[in-house]
Amino acid sequence: MTDPAAPEPAPSPPPGCPAHAGAIRLSGLEYQQSPSELYRSMRREQGAVAPILLDGDIPAWLVLGYAEVSYVTSHDDLFARDSRRWNQWENIPADWPLMPFVGYQPSVLFAEGAEHQRRAGVITEALESVDQFELAHWSTRIADQLIDGFAGSGQAELMSAYAHALPMRAAVQMCGMPARGSDTDDLVRDLQISLDAAEGDDPVAAYVRVQERIQRLVKDKRGTPGPDVTSRMLRHPAGLTDEEIVQDLISIIAAAQQPTANWICNTLRLLLTDDRFALNVSGGRLSVGQALNEVLWLDTPTQNFIGRWAVRDTQLGGRQIRAGDCVVLGLAAANTDPQIWPEGHIGAENSSHLSFSNGEHRCPYPAPLLADVIARTAIETLLERLPDVVLAVEPEQLTWRPSIWMRGLTSLPVQFTPVVQ
Description:
Layout: E1 24-25, H1 30-33, H2 35-46, E2 49-54, E3 58-63, H3 66-73, E4 79-80, H4 99-102, H5 113-128, H6 132-148, E5 155-157, H7 158-163, H8 165-175, H9 182-195, H10 203-223, H11 229-234, H12 242-273, H13 275-281, H14 286-298, E6 305-310, E7 314-316, E8 319-321, E9 326-329, H15 331-335, H16 367-385, E10 390-391, E11 413-415
Parallel strand pairs: 1-2, 3-9
Antiparallel strand pairs: 2-3, 4-6, 5-11, 6-9, 7-8, 10-11
């Protein structure tokens, strides 16, 4: 089975070849400041599916085209989620930096077929019971507490002091943990390391600590349930085990924290640097929704997602994909595919982006709606409390984390008129 309208297959390396011919290493300064330019170059030179090298020169495929990403994510029979299919495991060391992404866990992320439907159904029903107005209230209260911590100084670094802390506190409160405290702060730090490790970090050890903390949460809620996501998952008639719930809670909290934090900060950067929004920010809030959606198209928090694994030999975008090959979803590249934006204009007014992926393994409903509540509340509360907030540096001085997976600023320094409490 092949993808629709696939061109003739490009030459592929011989069996046993340790790396793709012409493969591109996903590293370097291009990812720090202008990944979109790199994606355009890769698409021009390699087509919609490009051979790449991951950490340690492990070969994989990066899917750059909108149609191709949509095809992969809607054909689980060809491109499945169980990473145990990977044909490179013999070359992967135990401390490989991407192990938190690809190491098989009995979680909803790697489940397939009826098992995935069972697990995703439990998550969906637990999240559907979250009152969005109550979540907005929690988020506003958390935002106010965070802003109180720096409002009197007239300056702040919003990435660390605001954007990272707010969605995490909202997510853990939603799951039944205290929104504040050293336990929560440790969880925030370890989740960030496991998802987007900086030089010198140990993402594998951080992920182990995350597991241990969520295990304690599930044990506590098994004994003392409450009106929270964890308790609803525990009493769901599907009868998930504690370990299954631990793994799925990690998926929920991780998705709510790092991507939402970057979504908040990337949107604030757009609002504070783009003249199209400058006149509207202080006078109204209509532009906030537009900015949030535009960021999902142009600076989506999750740039690339690893991944899918080919169930059998097939073709995709003119490439010969072998059984067990790893396929990385280029969500950011797909969102800016010139095939869907032939005039080069990204229409922020529509929401058909792939930032929450697509198909059965997309971000489960209503998680994107809950993330939007948190992000929108965070931005609107900040702008209401600090209406004259401006960047404390020139826009070109802002730098991005050199990550191929997440799109987020290293810092967002701002200044404003101090507010006396």
